[in-house]
Amino acid sequence: MKIAWHGHSCFEIHNGLTVVLDPHDGRSIGIKPPVVRADICLLSHDHFDHNCSRIVRGDPTVIREPGERTVKGLKVLGIPTFHDTEGGAKRGRNTIYRFEMDGISFAHCGDLGHELDAKQLEALGKIDILFVPVGGVFTIDGATAQKLISKVRPRVAVPMHFRFGGLSVSIDTVDPFLEGIDEDDILRVGNEIEFIRDELPPKLEYWVFSP
């Protein structure tokens, strides 16, 4: 199993099948564009820094709506949420995607803008690896992300949608999110990591990706 980060909220998950989540074009947000090939492309919402499926090679099946479906043998659940705290009135809708590969459950929160209610948490279920926005302004901030993590209780939490390098989106860095976390619980993985299910940590660990 491999996870690679392509900046912002774009991740590539590969284990025979390749899933790419929330691709951007790079240029529009001041960073390098992803160079990726995928079987399936999941888009959490239709904003320019998350919906650039055209750059993904390999003619992937593109999913951009909530609901449950099986695509190329992968069962994908899209949980409807919002991009703000006002029911989508400010920034529209957002979809959290949940899926499993090789017995590992993943959830990618996209540009989640609010705390989840009991029904949404129940739909999410048990999650091994949770990708969560932490930069604030347009999404939940680091403190709210920590609240979500405490409710979901994943084995791995992956912060995303934070300011780094030349990113032109005015959001926080990852530092406020990591404040107060023991360094022993943080794994700084560079821009990709390979692992098997048995290597997942027994208790919560934070995987921090960097360029």
Describe this structure in words.
The protein has about 210 residues and is mainly beta. The protein has one domain (about 1-195, about 205-210): 4-Layer Sandwich (Metallo-beta-lactamase, Chain A), CATH 3.60.15.10. The chain is about 10% helix and about 35% strand. The protein has helices spanning about 120-125, 140-150, 175-180; strands at about 1-5, 10-15, 15-20, 40, 60-65, 65-70, 75-80, 95-100, 105-110, 130-135, 155-160, 185-190, 190-195, 205-210. The strands form 2 sheets. The chain has an 8-stranded mixed beta sheet with strand order 6-7-8-9-10-11-14-12, with helices on one face. The two termini are about 20 Å apart.
* Helix proportion range: 10-25%
Largest sheet: 8 strands, mixed
Please report the first level of CATH classification, the CATH class. Answer: Alpha Beta
- CATH fold description: Metallo-beta-lactamase, Chain A
The largest sheet has its strands arranged as 6-7-8-9-10-11-14-12
- The average pLDDT value, as a whole number, equals 96
What is the gyration radius calculated from CA atoms?
Answer: 16 Å
Tell me the number of structural domains.
1
Succession of helices and strands: EEEEEEEEEHEHEHEEE
Q: In total, how many beta strands? A: 14
Straight-line distance between termini: 20 Å
- What CATH architecture do you see? 4-Layer Sandwich
Question: What are the main properties of this structure?
Answer:
211 residues, mainly beta, Metallo-beta-lactamase, Chain A, eight-stranded mixed beta sheet, six-stranded mixed beta sheet, 10% helix, globular
